[in-house]
Amino acid sequence: MSGFDIEGLLKFQPARYYCVKCLALTGEISTKPSGPGTIRNRDGRLECSVCQLEYVPTSSYSRSAVASYLADMSCHIKSVADLNHARQLARIGSDVRRGDPHYPPVRGLLEALSRARDFAHFTTFNMSRVMVGALKVTAQRISVRGAVSAIDSALLAELVDYREEAPGLSVKAYDSDPDETKRIHENMIVIDGLLAFKGPANLTMSEWRKAAYQYPDREGGGSTSKSETVVTDVEEVIALHNSNFSPRWARMSMIGDKITMDFPR
Ligand SMILES: [Zn+2]
After folding, report:
1. What CATH number is associated with residue 219?
2. How far away, in angstroms, is 98 Cα from ligand 1 center?
3. Are residues 70 and 88 in the same domain?
């Protein structure tokens, strides 16, 4: 008899916390040397392996209390305990992959945003007004953070000048930077550390609609592009997030090389 073996749940290791500086996701915090997780012991210091931020213990938070510190700093993912939430996002990923014309990638993305419980993080070259609206609506409930490049000035004003309309939305733009090496070459959006969409598509409606014709499973053909992809492997989602979004976010952070773990004011 083939069914779901609950032992499979032991492999489910979702992100539980994120770094205060680069927002890198981590399932565990390792206070012992060579442990797993993004925030871990390195040469006796607790450090984020993505941005190298050192977490300095205090009388308020000892070395083994980093998880409590991150929770008190609101750097923890609250929806992680809800398996039903993970199931809903998994179903969205499955529906997008199936390539049903009645469930195009745009719908998958919009539904994922509407069901997001903790955050949506993205990197993109550009975005459309419709997508800005969708992100602003999402940011009424949760944190939406993004690093964008080549965005036009009117849209940038829409994102930066009216922050009070969507306080949960925080977008950092790279378009005025002449250094090509700092521009964004990977486009992705990560929902709650569980589901990601990645590929060359910008966050514009036309690019996302084009993506509808590039899923390999779509009936009647279409190109078999591997570049437009929905990711449901949690380990891969975390790696994608931490290698693309986090380094760019860290570069624009006001936090230095160390953070003293004191009570938040
Ligand atoms: Zn970090």
Report:
1. 3.30.870
2. 36
3. no
The per-residue pLDDT for 184 is 55
Distance 48 CA to ligand 1 centre (A): 5
Domain match, 68 and 134 both:
no
CA distance 174 to 250: 13
Same-domain status, 86 and 216: yes
Cα(126) to ligand 1 centroid in Å equals 25
- Could you tell me the distance, in angstroms and rounded to a whole number, from the CA of residue 217 to the centre of ligand 1? 37
Asked if 115 and 88 touch (Cβ cutoff 8 Å), the reply is yes
Instruction: Using the mean position of ligand 1's atoms as its centre, give its distance from the Cα of residue 131 in Å.
Output: 28
Would the pLDDT of 94 be above 80? yes
User: What's the angle, vertex CA 152, arms to CA 118 and CA 246, rounded to 5?
Assistant: 35
Q: Please tell me whether residues 106 and 208 are part of one structural domain.
A: yes
Length of the chain: 265
Give the Å distance between the CA of 76 and the centre of ligand 1. Answer: 14
Give the domain range for residue 117. Answer: 80-232
Q: Using the mean position of ligand 1's atoms as its centre, give its distance from the Cα of residue 116 in Å.
A: 23
Q: Residue 91 pLDDT > 70, yes or no?
A: yes
**Which residues have C-beta within 8 Å of that of residue 103, sequence separation ≥ 6?**
95, 96
CA of 238 to the centre of ligand 1 (A): 13
pLDDT tens figures, 158-174: 887 888 899 999 988 76
Rounded distance between C-alpha atoms, residue 187 and residue 262, angstroms: 35
